[in-house]
Amino acid sequence: MTSPTEATAGGKPALVEARGVGKFYGNVPALTDVSTAVRAGRVTCVLGDNGAGKSTLIKILSGVHRHDRGELLVDGAAVSFSGPREALDAGIATVHQDLAMVPLMPIWRNFFLGSELSRGRGPLRRLDVAAMRATTRAELLRMGIDLRDVDQPVGTLSGGERQSVAIARAVHLGARVLILDEPTAALGVRQAGVVLRYVARARELGLGVVFITHNPHHAYPVGDRFLLLSRGRSLGEYGREEIDRAELTRLMAGGSELDELAHELDRG
């Protein structure tokens, strides 16, 4: 297992780095001494079961909650976000499971929801629908997403397609770090593959990606580094060259605890 952060590899600071980060709710520790770094053109997979601390880490990185201990750095400078807007301004975008999309609205409208383009001034100001349609189509194609019609309601898309639209939207709006919260959790094998393809595409475009998941079979194909959490603590961070899929799955499933359980259940 290598150093947890590799913060200055290549002479450049990480886009985002957590150093010994901790978070408490009252006297209850939700996260204790967790470190990781997110680098440009790399996918950091954060794995853990329910209650492992993944959601808490997301909230700290995305500015929803402030950390109580340790340091959070952006481009090597310590920060303490007062809200999600500050994280967005720093180029950190989060795509949540619910996607914050309006099913009955067309794809282009969802793509620009809250950031609509307009033309004209004063009482003559109007939404620039043509520009938003053209931009949506072009940005989706840049991500390798070829949808039939950007005027179709977003609710008619598959789960994987909706996730890909959300990823493309974050990239277009200037994200340098893309946090994906369990994007494949509710998807079948084929649709999960669609999302993983666009995670890889975001990496190719130079983004730093944080891929939150409880599924090592989804993480391993796209991951460059793997941070394992359990009960709010780090079980270690591994480079892809340091761990194979089988070992990642074993650690994710409980490691020695799973071995002991298998022994107890053995009827041989």
Task: Describe the fold and architecture.
GO terms for molecular function: ATP binding; ATP hydrolysis activity. Residues 16-256 form the ABC transporter domain. It comes from Marinitenerispora sediminis. InterPro entries: AAA+_ATPase, ABC_carbohydrate_import_ATPase, ABC_transporter-like_ATP-bd, P-loop_NTPase. Keywords: ATP-binding, Nucleotide-binding. The structure is a single chain. By secondary structure, this protein is α/β, with parallel strands linked by helices. It has a domain at 12-103 and 173-265: Rossmann fold (3-Layer(aba) Sandwich), CATH 3.40.50. It is 33% helix and 25% strand. The protein has helices at 54-61, 84-89, 107-111, 129-142, 159-172, 189-204, 216-222, 245-253, 256-265; strands at 16-25, 28-38, 43-47, 69-74, 77-79, 92-95, 118-119, 126-127, 177-181, 208-213, 225-230, 233-239. The strands form 3 sheets. Strands 6-9-10-3-11-12 form a 6-stranded mixed sheet, sandwiched between helices. The model has no long low-confidence stretch (mean pLDDT 87).
> Strand content of the residues, in percent?
25-35%
CATH architectural name of the domain at 12-103 and 173-265: 3-Layer(aba) Sandwich
Order of helices and strands: EEEHEEHEHEEHHEHEHEEHH
- If strands are numbered along the chain, what order do they take across the biggest sheet? 6-9-10-3-11-12
Roughly what is the average pLDDT, rounded to an integer?
A: 87
**Care to count the β-strands?**
12
Task: Please outline the major beta sheet.
Answer: 6 strands, mixed
- The separation of the N and C termini measures 35 Å
The helix content, as a percent range, equals 25-40%
Structural class: alpha/beta
- The CATH class designation of the domain at 12-103 and 173-265 is Alpha Beta
Q: In the CATH hierarchy, what is the superfamily of the domain at 12-103 and 173-265?
A: P-loop containing nucleotide triphosphate hydrolases
Shape descriptor reads globular
